[in-house]
Amino acid sequence: MRLPRPSFLKFTLAVLISAGVLLALFIGVNTWVNPLWVSKAPWSDDSFAEYRPIYRYQRTGKAGIAEAKPWKVGFFGSSRIDIAFDPALPQWQGTPAVNLAVSAGTLPETAPILDYTLKRAPLETAIVGIDIGDLLGGNSPYKTTGFMESPFNPDGNKLEQTLRYYAGISTFESAVQTIINKRKNELPEYTPLGHRLRHQETVDVAKVIQRDAISHALRVIRRRKANPPAEPNKWKADFLQEILDDTKEHKCRLVLVIPPSHATYLGVFFQQGDPDPTFSKDRFAMAKMVAASNAAHPEAPPATIWDFNDFHALNAENVPMDNSKMHWWLDGTHARKALGDVMLARIMGWPVEAAAADYGFELTEANAAARSEALRAGYEKFQKEQPDLWKWMEQGILKYQDTAAKSTAKDEAAPGF
Fold first, then answer.
1. Under a CB-based contact definition with an 8 Å cutoff, are residues 258 and 287 in contact?
2. Do residues 89 and 343 lie in contact, with contact meaning Cβ atoms separated by under 8 Å?
3. Scanning 201, 333, 342, 356, which has the fewest C-beta atoms within 10 Å of its C-beta?
4. Which is more confident, 203 or 55?
5. Residue 27 lies in a domain
């Protein structure tokens, strides 16, 4: 047999040494910076915490944050919770709180994220947002959000994940960005407590609400008219039951939250004749499951439902027609931290200003029907008392009806809310 030439052996050895040096560099930098919170080592530098850019890898980053401290209060759900709920409020009085909600989060993600956290942190209170429409809808983008590749996925490949976190190029890129952020003292979207606090402003709020929120409502209504909602989706209901069972098992207080949308978004469902514009079936199904869970587990803290999705004055803030910002709202479906602070105050029983004293509704199986009637009355009041805003909503409907009618298959597969 002919032996390899010495030159070839030297080349191969050089390649192997270079690869080893590069791998060592990646592992060293990734563990030193720990940019996504999942490559921690004894020598990791926590001074990078404020600068870690987890926006592109929310699920992975928040899984790392979930293990970072012994949290006692946790927020879960979609971007409505991700943006609005602040775990750093002084009212927590030192209680370790964390925001583990994720963009486009639906029940198939929320349940395992909560389960993951309960197994690693002594949670005493879990505040879980469920977007109205999620329970009765069969859609979820969880396979394309980064959930499958994150530690939150109970069926994920742990070896592959570990290699990627400690030696991966994406982690290394995030580490380099973290170093740059710190050097320039530029803070990223997320805080070390998982709160998406920064870089959320839009240039033209009125245009964004019409283009994104109102057109989205039109797409959802068309889908619901084609397949009128009747019963909870079995797949989604199982995840809600998992949330109820897990919190009961851990003796953790559960607060389910129906996050708000702006009145001009909600109004489209009434104006366009949605099959169930008050989402009464969603509310009743949720309340029924909570009541059954509480009755079955009297030894555990009772779960409650706080419903903020209505035509309250705080949800019907005037939309500026210039480039100025709204006080309570970022756009038609995402409340600012300011409104999130009010929601948390109402949930936790903290003092609020007089204008917010009646904000939110404690939904139960007994009052679900009354809630539906109140929503209808709220729409009538909105139409009569804010005619300019209502007419502007109608203009948006006319403007984007064709756009919504031509939505792609991808749009149709998106989560309803």
1. no
2. no
3. 201
4. 55
5. no
Rounded Cα distance, 302 and 403, in Å: 45
Nearest to 47 by CA among 192, 199, 196, 198: 192
Q: How many domains does the chain have?
A: 1
| Domain CATH code at residue 290 | 3.40.50.1110
Q: Please name the residues in contact with 287: beta carbons below 8 A apart, sequence gap of 6 or more.
A: 305, 363, 364, 365, 368
Range of the domain at 151: 70-156+201-413
Residue type, 99: N
CB 88 within 8 A of CB 193: yes
In a domain, 58, yes or no: no
Give the E-state strand segments of 203-321 in sequence order: 253-258, 304-307
Residue 190 lies in a domain: no
What is the structure's pLDDT at 15? 73
Q: What are phi and psi of 140, to 5 degrees?
A: -165, 130
Whether the CA torsion 294, 296, 298, 299 is positive or negative: it is negative
Residue 190 phi, psi dihedral angles, 5° rounding: -100, 145
pLDDT tens across 9-47, in order?
A: 676 777 777 667 778 888 999 999 999 999 999 999 999
Q: Residue 231 and residue 240: Cα distance in Å, rounded?
A: 14
Domain-located, residue 172 = no
